[in-house]
Amino acid sequence: MAHxxxxxxxxxxxxxxxxxxxxxxxxxxxxxxxxxxxxxxLFDYFLKNRLILVVAEARIRYAREAKVFDxxxxxxxxxxxxxxxxxxxxxxxxDTGEVVARGTIKTLLVDHDRIPHDIPDFFLG
Length: 125
Prior knowledge:
Layout: E1 2-8, H1 24-39, H2 42-49, E2 51-62, E3 71-81, E4 84-93, E5 99-111, E6 116-117
Antiparallel strand pairs: 1-3, 2-5, 3-4, 4-5, 5-6
């Protein structure tokens, strides 16, 4: 399952060098995951079943700088790597098509007692 989230770089996301601060790329990836949960009604599933999707591991590799008002797209693929649900993000500049960064985020599905649960098949459908 592939998903695309589009955004415009905002001024407050820049560091003193005038490009997007390295930590902001994690925010871009996280917002892309929230959009997947929203558009696929997975967030409602979590609420009904009292489950939480937590980040177990996060990794970003930076390729090019992004600057204020750049139009970016976060392309996200999901895969199950038991017990994890893995989100592979590729952030591209929409005007040039160049890859700005790539991120891999491993998540676990846990209940309110923090006990891990299997990733349901329909998550990937």
